[in-house]
Each structure stands twice: as C-alpha cells, then as structure tokens.
Design goal:
CATH topology of one domain: Rossmann fold
Protein name: Probable ATP-binding protein YbiT
CATH class of one domain: Alpha Beta
Number of helices: 21
Distance between the termini: 42 Å
Strand content: 15-25%
Largest sheet: 6 strands, mixed
Number of strands: 18
CATH architecture of one domain: 3-Layer(aba) Sandwich
Pfam families: ABC_tran, ABC_tran_Xtn
Keywords: ATP-binding, Coiled coil, Nucleotide-binding, Repeat
InterPro entries: AAA+_ATPase, ABC_tran_Xtn, ABC_transporter-like_ATP-bd, ABC_transporter-like_CS, ABCF_ATPase, P-loop_NTPase, Val-tRNA_synth_C_sf
GO molecular function: ATP binding; ATP hydrolysis activity
C-alpha cells in the first residue's frame, strides 16, 4: 500500500533522522512514538507529500489516497458547519452533476443508434456505479453521524464556522477528513481538542475503519485501543514493533537489556582477543594464531547499543501551606453570558453544587463548551456567577495552569525572563535549577518563547507554578503537547503533592489513579461522581444504555394478549408454552453425529491455532531483532497472521454452531 524507503532529513548538517524504512499494509493501525522533537510530525508531512526529505522516497500504490490532519490547521470562515463538512464529498457532488447532465442529454436525444448516444449511456452507467459505490445517497446521514460523534449538537449544524473556537474548528477539519474516507489516515495529535466521549467515539470509528492509520498521540489509552503496531523514532533511528503501545514499552525494555548483554559479552571477547594479539604479536611460534585472531577481529560485526534518551523532567511541587477544610464551594451556581456584539445570550450551566475539600484531587470533565473553564474562571474570581455563589475557603492560594498559554506568555521574552519577571525573593537564585528540572538547560534558557514548541511552552508554564508555594493547583489541560514520559512524571508529582488539585483533562490514563472524584458538566447541569475516571466512564456507559432503552419504542403487545383479560381488567394467567416435540431416533442420531463432528473440528482447530501461535511468536521475536529483520521474514509473518486469523474464525463459527445444540 505504502513504502517508506531510506528517508533521511537533515537540518544544518545535523540529521533529524536517517535511513528510516518501513511498509504500511492495508488495515494496519500504526502508532508513531518518540519524544518531542524526534521528527514524528516531519515524517507525517513527508508521507503526506507536504515536505521533501533530504534523501530517500515514499512510494504508494495507485489506489492509495492519503488524508492528513496536522496539529494546527486554518478552517474556512465563509460558510456554515454542514456546508463546510459537505466539501468532503467533492467527488460525489461532481458525480451528481455528471449523472444529471447525462440524464438530461439522453432524455433530449433521439439518435439511439449513434456512437455519441452509446457513449452517453456508458458515462451515465459509470457515474451511477461510482456514485453508489461511494454511498452517495447516504452522505447527509454520514455528516450527521460524524458531527454528533465528535460532540457537535444538531442545533449547531447551521451555525457559521467563524463562530467556533479553535478547538472546535479542528474538530470540523477532523470531521471532513473522516468523511472523505481515504485509504490511509495520517493523524497528528487528533485527541488534543476532543473530550472523553468524542475520543471514545473516534476510537471505535478507527477500530472499524477499512483503511490504514498512522497516528501520533500522547494519549496512552487511545494508542492502546486503536493501534496494533508501534514505530519508535529515537536518536535518529526508527524501530518497528508489531504490538500496541503498552506492549511496546515492555518489549523495548527487554530488547535494550538484550542489546546491553550482547554488547558486554562481545566487548569482553574483543578485549581478550586483543590481549592475546598484543601478548604474542612478536613471537614467531604464535604468528599464525596472531594473524588468525586479527582476521577474526576484522570480520566481527560490532554490536552497537542504542543511545538512550534519558532526559526527563525532575519536578516536585513545594509543600502546600495549610488551608481551610473547604477549599472551593459552589452553591446552586450558574452562569449565563448576556447578549453582546450581536451575539445572543448564552446559558452555560445552572444549579451547580460543588465542594472540594483540602487534599482532594478532583477532575472536571465534559464536552468542550459545557462550562468547565467557565467554572475555573468563577473560582479564580475573574467572573461573577449570575446565579448562586462560588467561593474559595480560608487561606487558599491558587496556582493556575491555563490552557491558552500562548496568550499568557509574551513571545518576545526569553525562557529565563518569563520566570525572572514574576519570581520574588530568594527563589530568584534558584531559577536556573528550576528551569533545568523542566529540561531547559544551557542555551535553551535564552530562547525566545515564540520559538518554543507546544510541549516546551507547557513545561515552561508548569515551571512558573514552582515559584511560590500554592495549596490549590488548578490545571486546565496540562498534558496537551506533553510527551508520555513528561506526563508520567507530572502525574507522579501531582500524586505526591500534599495540596488540593482541580484538573480539567480528557486524558484517561493521566486521570486514572490521580483523581478520586469527578464532576461532569453536561447539558447545562453539573453532576458529582465519586471514584476514579474509569468508574465514571462505566457509570456513563450504563446511563447511556438506559437512556437508549427509555427512548426506544416499547414492543407492541400481541392482539390476542390485549383481548385476553378477565372481567376485572387484570391480565389472564399466562398459558404454558407448548412443549417441543421429542426428536425421533433418526433425528437424535443425526444430532449426535453433528455434535461429534463439531467437537472433533474444534479440537483439531485448537491444536492448529496453538501451533500457529507458537510459529507467530517465534517470528515476532526474530522481527524484533534488527540483525534478523528482512522483508521476506516480514511477508512470512503476515502470511502466518492471515492463516491464524482464518483458523480463529473457523473455530468461532464451529463453537457457535455447537452452542446452538445447547452444549457449552
């Protein structure tokens, strides 16, 4: 489907990555991982044809179409939501015009025997066939399903795109990309602007999609649920693992240990050989042996241990001063923004009762625009509620990490100046240490904020929270643009923090084990859920199922049952269902024969599956070793996997047939 061959990208004589090669097959789900700045986004741009590599090439088959979603994209402002999404169906719209033209021409002409008439018939047939192949009649339903899945509301379908915020505009572009249905998706941080429900919807969509997917994401749960293959870019090289992210982490650690052990063994052998050569170099009686050892050394393929990128944040929040027992309290709070500048009045939420006590770690979740950030602004005192009250407790000092860091930091200041201008007292002597803990070292502290990446800006904003001791940290999407390692370190630091934390995040893995209470903002109300984030998600899933059941039409009662009532209006006693007739001797014999055949088939399939799994595991281990990796081996692995999948399908069908006989 697509082949990446020996790609190298260099800037100023330094390689970003070199000689990267891999194949992308149909229906593969690939996670592209590596630290910020490793070259992941650059690689996607090259595959999408938007950037040229220093050397190497990307080849794709004729039927391969690529859909690319970058981290940031400008959305058109001259139309409404549904019309903008309809642009994804450019081919279908063109086919409709072709069908309309051909139909009109055929109706008007009478030269039924001419070549032109026959050509028109062929054009109409081809266009109609292609139109139905693309499911043209269903496009309005597809637009609605996709927009609802990504969190848009039906009443917003005719809203101008210019009135949506940046995060929602990215969703519009994602919706257009999904509706185009390319054979290969390239997604760069698609979950950054999605809420938890939309992320789960996108997971399901990508799992069931017929094309291939290459995605960059720092959401571990999203990667695990979507991908079945992981390509790591580290220290300028690419390593391919045929497993999801969490399994890749384990295999990577094992592989590195094996590399180190093999390297150390080889170094010991080389050292002993060199000692022998040096000791007997000038003894004529040993000259043949010395020459043999020298040739042996020359032929050895030296093992290189992968360079390990150990640069990690080293953070610990200052001890929190003691606050009152109640840190934040909202009583029947609500917020409605008045009509202004031609915009209608906007009701955000009402009736919110929220209590956050000292030491609690609480998550605010919900779709974008439901009021999470508005509530934070009420807590900070930047807004006054239009209903009820929101107050902070005694001796509460708030440290705030805002989602819009670009607006809060002056791009012309350097990294050091950004901290130096707000630091007060003795902490000013430790600014370089604090910046070093957040990976700003050497010349990095003299960089201007405007040239920093998204992840670097997030780290700098987090460093500002270290300048004084707070007892309430309010974090609005703190993990956006952070790599996996940085997120893990931040999570550990927050877990160890002895103050109170209020966090807005859509990253399930980050929230898991960190928060013990969840407040959900939904449909203008706020609901409390006790427990962790996965407890909340299970509850929401059950509630959604109940809501579907409530909205589903009740099954119609049989006419006979409706009439069959006693005179006092009570239902008559239910009649016993007639017993099924017993099987004849011949039928029983045939049934037993079928059961025996199915049992034998299942036993045989289970043996074959076990053997295939062993073979696949052995090949998998060989593929993990770069020294053994070949395209022939990779093809053999794919053939085995296909055969294994087919056997598993046969086993499932046979088991299902056996269960129909009442046998488990």
């Amino acid at each position: 489907m697509l082949s990446v061959d020996n790609l190298t990208v260099s800037f100023g004589g330094t390689d970003l990555f070199r000689d990267i090669s891999f194949l992308v097959n149909a229906k593969e789900r690939i996670g592209l991982v590596g630290k910020n700045g490793a070259g992941k986004s650059t690689l996607l741009k090259i595959i999408a044809g938007l950037q040229t590599p220093t050397s190497g090439a990307v080849s794709k088959t004729e039927d391969c179409t690529v859909g690319y979603l970058p981290q940031q994209m400008r959305v058109a402002d001259d139309t409404d939501l549904v019309t903008e999404c309809g642009k994804a169906f450019a081919e279908i719209i063109s086919l409709e015009k072709e069908i309309e033209y051909c139909t009109a021409e055929i109706s008007a002409r009478t030269d039924y025997e001419s070549d032109e008439y026959e050509k028109l018939l062929h054009r109409l047939h081809d266009a109609t066939e292609r139109y139905h192949l693309l499911d043209g009649d269903n496009r309005d339903a597809e637009v609605e399903k996709t927009l609802l899945g990504l969190g848009f509301k039906r009443e917003e379908f005719n809203r101008p795109t210019s009135t949506f915020s940046g995060g929602w505009r990215m969703r519009i572009e994602l919706a257009k990309l999904l509706l185009k249905r390319p054979t290969l998706f390239l997604l760069d941080e698609p979950t950054n602007h999605l809420d938890i429900e939309s992320i789960q919807w996108l997971e399901t969509y990508l799992q069931n999609y017929g094309g291939a997917v290459i995605l960059i994401s720092h959401d571990r749960a999203f990667l695990d649920n979507v991908t079945n293959r992981t390509i790591e870019i580290s220290c300028g090289r690419a390593t391919d693992y045929k497993v999801p992210y969490s399994r890749y982490v384990e295999l990577r650690a094992e592989r590195r240990q094996q590399q180190i052990a093999a390297y150390e063994n080889q170094q010991r052998m080389i050292e002993k050989t060199e000692e022998f050569i040096e000791k007997f170099r000038y003894k004529p009686t040993k000259s043949n042996q010395v020459q043999s050892r020298i040739k042996q050394l020359d032929k050895i393929e030296r093992i290189e241990v992968e360079e390990e990128d150990n640069a990690t944040m080293n953070i610990r929040f200052p001890p929190a001063p003691r606050s009152g027992q109640v840190v934040v309290e909202a009583k029947e709070a609500g917020m409605t923004f008045p009509a202004r500048d031609g915009k209608a009045e906007k009701h955000v939420f009402s009736g919110a009762n929220i209590v956050v006590e000292r030491g609690e770690k609480v998550a605010l979740v919900g779709r974008n625009g439901e009021g999470k950030t508005t509530f934070v602004r009420l807590t900070l005192g930047e807004l006054a509620p239009t209903e009820g009250s929101v107050r902070t407790g005694h001796n509460v000092h708030i440290g705030y990490f805002a989602q819009n860091q670009d607006d809060l930091m002056d791009g012309e200041f350097t990294v050091f100046d950004t901290l130096d201008r707000v630091a007060v007292g003795d902490i000013r002597t430790r600014l370089r240490d604090i910046l070093g803990a957040f990976l700003f070292r050497g010349e990095d502290i003299d960089k201007k904020v405007k040239v920093l990446s998204g992840g670097e800006r997030s780290r700098l904003a987090m460093a500002r929270l270290m300048l004084e001791p707070y007892n309430l940290l309010i974090l609005d999407e703190p993990t956006n643009h952070m790599d996996m390692r940085s997120k893990d370190i931040l999570k550990r630091a927050l877990t160890a923090y002895d103050g109170t934390v209020l966090v807005i995040s859509h990253d399930r893995e980050f929230l898991d084990g960190l928060v013990s209470k969840v407040y959900e903002f939904r449909d203008g109300r706020v609901k409390e859920h006790l427990g962790g984030i996965y407890d909340f998600l299970r509850t929401r899933q059950i509630e959604n199922m109940r809501e579907i059941e409530r909205n589903a039409p009740a099954p119609a009662k049989p006419v006979a049952a409706a009439k069959d009532k006693s005179r006092n209006g009570q239902p008559a006693p239910r009649k016993e269902e007639p017993k099924k007739p017993e099987l004849s001797y011949a039928e029983k014999k045939e049934r037993d024969r079928q059961i025996t055949r199915l049992r034998n088939s299942i036993g045989r399939l289970e043996t074959e599956i076990a053997e295939l799994e062993q073979e696949t595991s052995a090949l998998d281990a060989r593929l993990m070793d770069p020294a053994q990796y070949t395209m022939a081996l990779f093809e053999e692995y794919n053939q085995l996997k296909t055969k294994l999948d087919a056997k598993m399908q046969e086993w499932a069908e046979a088991t299902e047939k056996l269960e129909k006989y009442g046998i488990q």
